[in-house]
Amino acid sequence: MTERPNDLSWGNFSDSGPWVLDRDTIAWSQVAIVLRAAAQKEVPSLIRARRIPPLGRLVVVVAHLGWALLPWFIQKKRNKFATPEDSRTYMSLRLRKAIEKLGATYIKLAQIISSGEGLFPTELVIEFKKCRDQVPPQPWNTVKLIVEQDLGARLEDVFANFEQQSLAAASIAQVHRATLLTGEDVVVKVQREQVSELVRRDLRVMAWIAPFMIGRIKVAALANPPALVELFAETIVEELDFRMEASNMIDVSMMLHDLNQEAYIVPRPHPSLVKRRVLVMERLQGFNFDDVEGMQAAGIDTEQVIKAGMISFMEGALIHGIFHGDLHGGNLFVLSDGRTALLDFGIVGRLTTKRRLAFMRLMLGATTNDLHSQVSALRDLGALPSDTDIDAVIRDLGLDQPTIDPTSLDGEELVAEVQRIVKALLAYGAKLPKELMLYIKNMVFLDGAIARLAPNLDIIGELTNISMTFMQRHGARLSEELGVDMNTVEIDMGSLKAGLGVDESTESMTYLQLQERRNLIQKRMRDHITN
């Protein structure tokens, strides 16, 4: 019997990796901590108010986006589109092509939008999904030069084979299959040429434009464009040095192991072949996360895959304050044994102790129907100002009123209700902190994944089970950290049901039923806006 690698005693990795990691001797682990602090310290200077933006880059951005949207605008004015869906499809295609030409920063924005199924138009999400791994790759000569420069050696002195054609290409980097001289099969992630400088110029342009967008673009109204740029800057600057990403891989793997989340693993980064622009890691193989037929034909329980994900990411955030922050179909694949491999750790959510405890109170409040606790937790997470009157928020948003079934409202009433809530939140200075945004984005992705992998899953029943499981596993910790007597806590999913728009008497709802309700609501709102 083959001996299990020693690193499985502290991390979730494959059962027989190409190398064994020793946490105490990893060359890049300590410097990553310094780099992460420096990256966040740089953000204020990147987004500070400037009288004059980088003019050259501003002209390029405006020209590309203007050229993309002008033909669509003209055709729309002339009523050339048979349906609103045709109009959105045409606009989405032109925007995607323009974004690819603008490069890494805008491609990354498109990737974020592509994970927002249900938040953004379907046509836009479908088109922008192509920005995940179908971006035109950089030339081979450029890739070779970057790898040799960062590793400080000729390609043939490190690799027995290095495939010139990329396996996938995205915003910040592209990946290639390779084999080390010592025989290990690996994947090599190579940063795009000059992407670091380009991202920083783009952030300065965005920071200059953002104040002019306030109140002018509907989708940006609640987000607060300047705050959105700050949030985006905080996220993307950490992706520009792969030593931070490799460190994230280790930290997430340790978290999964500590929580006994055996359904998820992380590829091993190489202990020495990780540099600023080059990341060599273990090569894993499996099913694409969207290949439901392939997984089910192989005997994989796709519903269990989803269930494991739902509790894994919640536990990581609440107990360790860390979670993968960029879930989408291109960043996960399912192994033949049913475990899921997490990929691409450029974006990872990290909660301070204060915010982790606030997150814990938010989730506990949601499972006990404690409105005051939920809103105060949102305040402590940074979503509301520190001096917010919690009772006033509950009253103004009508959270203490009987649930109104949104499917009982017509289009005009639905739009009016959304506008009322948005107006109330803006009046309180609401915003979306980075960690909360990443978590919500992940939940939106999992929501869409349920539609494909487990459409008959009982949403209410499963979330109730997750809440009970979490309290059983971590009740002692909840009592200690929150000062709550868990013996007196009773699960009450009233808040969840209210969020779904159903009354408390509803005991179950499959994802298919939930989606039917959403489709009806969206159609009524679209019809009202169109008319």
Radius of gyration: 24 Å
Residue fraction in strands: 5-15%
Task: Tally the helices.
Answer: 19
Q: Count the E strands.
A: 12
* Low-pLDDT regions: none
Proportion in helices: 40-55%
Major beta-sheet overview = 6 strands, antiparallel
Shape: globular
Average residue-wise pLDDT: 88
What gap, in angstroms, lies between the N and C termini? 70 Å
Description:
The longest helix has 24 residues, at 459-482. A hairpin with a 3-residue loop joins strand 2 and strand 3 (173-180). The protein is built from 19 helices and 12 strands. The protein has helices spanning 29-47, 55-77, 84-102, 104-114, 122-128, 140-151, 195-213, 225-236, 242-258, 292-297, 302-320, 353-368, 371-380, 390-397, 411-427, 434-453, 459-482, 494-500, 511-530, and strands at 159-162, 168-169, 173-180, 185-191, 264-265, 269-274, 278-282, 287-288, 322-324, 332-334, 340-342, 348-350. Helix 3 (84-102) runs antiparallel to helix 4. The strands form 3 sheets. Strands 1, 2, 3, 4, 6 and 7 form a 6-stranded antiparallel β-sheet that branches. Strands 5-11-10-8 form a 4-stranded mixed β-sheet. The chain is α+β, with helices and mostly antiparallel strands. The protein starts with 28 loop residues before the first helix and ends with a helix.
